[in-house]
Amino acid sequence: MRKTSKANIASDLETKGKSEVRNATEQKGSMVLDEQLQKVAFLAKSLSDENRLRILLCVSNGKKPVSAIVEEMGLSQPLVSHHLKELKRSLLVNVERNGPFINYELVDPRILDVVQTLSVVATDLLAARKTF
After folding, report:
1. How far are the Cα atoms of 16, 18, 19, 36, 52 from residue 22, in angstroms, in the given order?
2. What is the mean pLDDT of the segment spanning 55-62?
3. What pLDDT, on the 0 to 100 scale, is given for residue 10?
4. Which of 41, 64, 74, 87 lies at a CB distance of 3.0 to 4.6 Å from 68, suitable for a disulfide?
5. What class does CATH assign to 49-128?
């Protein structure tokens, strides 16, 4: 039978304490990662529609009323309004009321960089693909 000394007990407690702290830190890190991935998925979902991407490009040059977006896009007003609502919900466009008009503009120009990067990756991946 092994004799248990105070030093051994202290060492065991210290090791268990470090292990518990490490596990808690890993769990916290995992939760932070999960939250970040949820945010990225939320944004990616908003960017997953071709019409929304086109609307983002349309409003990237400054404020535009819905009527100008409809005309430029060649889409119906209800469809454009639906996509603008989703882009607003996703915090990708600013909305400004000006009398009877509602103007939209891109919130952050970095989103254009994201779209450009996705475009390059998509082009590269699809170029290498043999079948669809």
Report:
1. 10, 6, 5, 21, 43
2. 96
3. 61
4. 64
5. mainly alpha
Neighbours of 112 (CB within 10 A): 13
Residue ranges covered by each domain of the chain: 7-46, 49-128
Residue 16 pLDDT = 65
Predicted TM-score of the model (pTM): 0.72
How many CB atoms sit inside 10 A of residue 51's CB? 14
H or E segment at 87? helix 77-89
pLDDT at 81 over 90: yes
122 three-class SS: helix
Reported as a pLDDT band with limits 50, 70 and 90, residue 30 is confident
Phi-psi domain of 102 (left: phi exceeds 0; alpha: psi -120 through 50; beta: other)? beta
Report phi then psi at 49, rounded to 5. Answer: -115, 130
3-state secondary structure of 39: helix
